[in-house]
Each structure stands twice: as C-alpha cells, then as structure tokens.
Design brief:
Blueprint (H helix, E strand, L loop, with lengths): L1 E3 L3 H12 L5 E3 L3 H4 L10 H7 L2 E4 L4 H8 L15 E4 L5 H13 L3 E4 L2 E2 L1 H7 L3 E5 L2 H6 L1 H8 L3 E5 L3 H29 L4 H8 L7 H11 L10 H13 L8 H12 L13 H11 L7
Parallel strand pairs: 1-2, 1-3, 3-4, 4-5, 7-8
Antiparallel strand pairs: 6-7
C-alpha cells in the first residue's frame, strides 16, 4: 500500500498505514517530507504505483491528482499488471471526482472518492471520518487502508461524487459554525457574559457544535490559534461547495457565508490558522455597515 502526498494530513495517514504494517512506499514532491519514511521513501509517484495495489492520495486539489495519475500504469488487470485501487482523500468537487474516476477506470484501475474529516490530529491518531463514494469493488480493495486511517470510522454514502458532496457540505457547516459561534461570543460579551461562561452554558444545550465544544475553548480562548487548518483551505472549500451546487439548487444562507469567508481574505493570510476568523469578525461586520456589529 502506498501514499502520495505527505503534508499534515497525508503524513499522518501514512504513519497509520506504516503502523499497521501495510506501507510499501510513500512519496511527496518535497523530499524533506518523504525522508522520514526511511526505506519506504520513494523517489517518484511512479515508484508508489509500481509497489502496491492500493494507493492513497492526499493532495492539494484535483489538478494535482490528475497530474499524479499520469504516473499510474496503463492496462491494469491485463498483461500481468495488477489493477490498483486509488483511494483519493483529496478535497474536490463531486464533478471533479467523477472526472478523475473516469481517468482511473479507463486505465483499468479502481477509484474511490474518499475525502476525510477530522484534521491533522485525527490523521495521526487514525480516527478520521472517511466519506466514501464508489462501487463495491473499489471499496473491497480499500478496506485495509480505510481501517488503518479511520479505525472503522468510515461510511459509504453512494457512487463516486457522493463522498465529495458530503465532505464539502460538512466543511461549509464547520465554516458556518466557526462564524456563528464567534459572533455569538461577541454578542454574549456585549450582554455582560464572559466567553468561558457563555461556552459552558452553550455546550450543555442544543446549539453546541465542534466549534463551540472543541475549537473555541482549545484554540481561540486559549490564545493559541493553532488548530492546524489553514484558512486558505476552508475558503477554498466554501467556494468549491457553492460553485459546485447542482443546477437549480439554491442555497442563499450558504451564499452569505461565502461572502463572509471571502471578505476574511482582507484580514487573514491564506497560510494563517482558520481560528483567526474570530479576530476578524468585528472588521468583517464593519464592512457590512454600522448596524452589523454594535
């Protein structure tokens, strides 16, 4: 089993695959990320495809996946060449997932649309939530990989494209929660309620979320702002979610959210942590007019 893409997420997943005794090769375009994998370190994507029948991808986007797939051998399952199951954990649109699946299947291989949620820590711990789109053949070929990175925390939601749809909707809801919890903290403060007291009340009530229970207490109110999720990625995900809405599907509230996250670019650089959105909310509110944030 091989892994291509060893950033914060990919390195964690590769580590879990290695701990399960399944890692054959690992590769990243940055040699410094590949080196820690020792004997399993590959010099190219082609080496990874040659060494295993399951290859897990963790790349920045669909364009990078398409580029890597050019290293995949043709005629899988024929002339003595084993068919490969590509487990693509990359975030992309449902249509992009379907397009990538066609490239893989045309070469005689299998493709699983398998984006993940949980962040770098869950990747390191092997507890990622995997949202799977694909057929039963691809799923059967990938079971060991899925167990290694999720500990069984995976769900098959439909054909290729369905996994990506669920991932984008999950991330846009997370983006919404980060903004709404942050605004609620500011409003509670204006009423004289301390942020910690407000979150204590909220997290025993129906409005709680991962943002209120984990992200704000651990990464925002602590002053750390280090959730290891770059804000440029969540802006990308929000844009992907809206731009890939099916024809005739309207989502006016999500469109408003898209505006808020787009405006955050004026105050927070792409490489900064997503949790800095809290600091930017008053300035974003001012951009909406004096009545937006009293």
């Amino acid at each position: 089993m091989g892994v291509i893409g060893l950033g914060a997420m990919g390195a964690g997943m590769a580590g879990r695959v290695a701990q399960a005794g399944l890692l054959s090769r690992a590769y990243d375009i940055d040699p410094a990320r590949t080196a820690p994998f020792g004997e399993a370190a590959a010099n190219s994507a082609a080496e990874v495809f040659e060494a295993g029948t399951v290859v897990l991808l963790s790349l920045p986007g669909a364009a990078q996946v398409e580029s890597v797939l050019t290293a995949m051998p043709a005629h899988g399952g024929r002339n003595g060449t084993a068919a490969i199951t590509v487990v693509d954990t990359t975030t992309r649109s449902p249509q992009q997932a379907r397009d990538l699946a066609r490239l893989v299947t045309a070469a005689g291989h299998h493709y699983l649309d398998a984006p993940v949620s949980g962040g770098a820590l869950a990747a390191e711990q092997g507890t990622l939530r995997v949202m799977i789109g694909g057929d039963d053949t691809a799923l059967a070929g990938a079971r060991q990989a899925l167990e290694a990175i999720s500990g069984g925390n995976h769900v098959h939601v439909g054909p290729v494209g369905a996994g990506s749809a669920c991932k984008l909707m999950n991330n846009i809801l997370y983006a919404a929660n980060l903004v709404t919890v942050g605004e609620a903290i500011y409003v509670a403060q204006a009423h004289g309620v301390a942020p910690t007291a407000f979150l204590d009340a909220l997290n025993g009530a129906s409005g709680r979320s991962v943002a209120s229970e984990l992200v704000y207490p651990r990464f925002v109110l602590s002053g750390g702002y280090d959730s290891r999720f770059a804000i440029g990625l969540i802006r990308r995900d929000v844009e992907l979610a809206i731009s890939s809405l099916p024809a005739g599907c309207r989502a006016p509230v999500l469109e408003l959210l898209r505006t808020v996250w787009a405006q955050s670019a004026a105050f927070i650089a792409d490489g900064d942590d997503t949790t800095h959105i809290f600091e930017a909310l008053p300035a974003i509110a001012d951009a909406h007019g004096p009545e937006a944030h009293r």
